[in-house]
């Protein structure tokens, strides 16, 4: 007969999400979209790989047709305040996958409400993809990309057990409730040779999670999977926070993060919860101090610094604001730069929460969602 403590534990311990099915799946629509975006802007995505260099040359000689280019211009794709890249990828992932339509339109209506008619946008995009595929599929570049994708699929198969372990470790730590994190299948896209290695994306279609990450960037795989766990928690948290507390989230977040994600508390919280865990906590490190920052930049050469500036538009903007043009300027103004862009009080706060969660007295009872909902609002008082 179970004792009293066991009975209480069985009543209060939340059920934990089982490891979803994990498979490697080509996504023709998304890959075609990447090629279109590269054709529209040669500097889009990856600029270093051999395939990317060949793509630049190919599209210089074979520019987009007027109807495709007009579609991108009409929707101001790749421009501020236009249809954003994420929306196009969500819809491109429904190309050949009508079973994803319901989940795609639900996400767009919830988080991209400025899109007045996603069904109409989808049909326009499909016509663009079909038109582009008709000509592009006959090209040597298309065949080369296909070869790269096949290589990547085989390489991902070889590390499938490691991938599974990484997902299981995240589940074991956060202990997501399957009724709230409803993911039952993870579809891993093969590495897109036109996409940036340090970028990734997660797309949720009801119970399917599609992950777009580089095979060599395993931290990014963790980051993107974590969105399926953290975003629903932040949605619940939103219902508990006052307007003043939401404003405080924005005040505490680093300027560097706000440059990338805006002032909205929701995106800032999702990203910082994930980044604090992924970039700091899981590695047994602590949030960066000014002394850490100085050590990090001390060995950077002028050549390296100029390369960083050329590769990162956001770094270029930050340095321009402080009139930094050389590595010597950067080091001389390191304190000012750190205080303005790197200092991250929101990370300090969330890091402390992770420490408390890991050291909580009864690990079997609270999952991360319960712990956050119970403890985080008080940290903003």
Question: How are the elements arranged and paired?
Answer:
Layout: H1 4-12, E1 21-24, H2 28-40, H3 50-61, H4 66-74, H5 85-92, H6 101-111, H7 118-136, H8 140-158, H9 160-174, E2 185-188, E3 201-205, E4 208-212, H10 218-238, H11 243-252, H12 255-261, H13 265-280, H14 290-298, H15 302-311, H16 313-321, H17 327-332, H18 334-342, H19 345-358, H20 368-379
Parallel strand pairs: 1-2, 2-4
Antiparallel strand pairs: 3-4
From the structure above, extract its key features.
62% helix, 20 helices, mainly alpha, 381 residues, four-stranded mixed sheet
Number of helices: 20
User: What is the strand arrangement across the widest sheet?
Assistant: 1-2-4-3
How many strands in all? 4
Assembly type of the chains comes to: single chain
Class by alpha and beta content: mainly alpha
Low-confidence stretches: 1-11
Q: Approximately how much beta-strand content do the residues carry?
A: under 5%
Largest sheet: 4 strands, mixed
- SSE order in H/E notation? HEHHHHHHHHEEEHHHHHHHHHHH
Shape, per Cα inertia axes: globular
Amount of helix: 55-70%
């Amino acid at each position: 007969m179970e004792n009293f403590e066991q009975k209480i534990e069985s009543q209060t311990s939340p059920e934990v999400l089982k490891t979803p099915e994990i498979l490697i799946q080509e996504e023709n629509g998304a890959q075609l979209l990447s090629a279109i975006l590269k054709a529209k802007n040669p500097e889009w995505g990856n600029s270093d790989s051999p395939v990317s260099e060949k793509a630049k040359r190919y599209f210089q000689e074979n520019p987009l047709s007027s109807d495709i280019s007009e579609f991108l211009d009409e929707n101001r794709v790749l421009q501020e305040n236009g249809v954003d890249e994420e929306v196009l990828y969500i819809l491109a992932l429904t190309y050949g996958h009508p079973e994803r339509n319901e989940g795609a339109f639900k996400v767009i209506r919830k988080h991209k409400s400025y899109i007045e008619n996603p069904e109409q946008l989808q049909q326009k995009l499909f016509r663009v993809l079909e038109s582009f595929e008709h000509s592009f599929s006959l090209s040597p570049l298309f065949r080369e990309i296909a070869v790269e994708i096949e290589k990547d699929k085989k390489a991902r198969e070889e590390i499938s057990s490691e991938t599974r372990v990484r997902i299981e470790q995240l589940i074991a730590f956060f202990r997501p409730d399957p009724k709230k994190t409803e993911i039952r299948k993870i579809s891993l896209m093969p590495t897109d040779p036109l996409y940036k290695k340090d970028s990734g994306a997660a797309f949720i279609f009801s119970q399917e999670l599609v992950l777009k990450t580089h095979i060599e960037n395993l931290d990014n795989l963790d980051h993107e999977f974590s969105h399926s766990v953290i975003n629903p928690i932040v949605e619940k948290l939103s219902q508990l926070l006052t307007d003043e507390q939401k404003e405080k989230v924005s005040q505490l977040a680093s300027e560097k993060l706000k440059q990338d994600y805006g002032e909205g508390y929701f995106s800032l919280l999702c990203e910082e919860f994930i980044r604090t865990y992924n970039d700091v906590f899981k590695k047994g490190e602590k949030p960066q101090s000014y002394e850490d920052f100085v050590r990090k930049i001390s060995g950077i050469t002028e050549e390296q610094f100029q390369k960083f500036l050329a590769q990162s538009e956001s770094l270029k903007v930050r340095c321009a604001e402080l009139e930094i043009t050389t590595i010597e300027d950067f080091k001389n103004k390191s304190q000012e730069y750190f205080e303005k862009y790197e200092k991250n009080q929101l990370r300090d706060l969330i890091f402390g929460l992770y420490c408390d969660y890991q050291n909580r007295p009864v690990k079997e009872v609270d999952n991360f969602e319960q712990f956050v909902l119970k403890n985080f609002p008080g940290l903003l008082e």
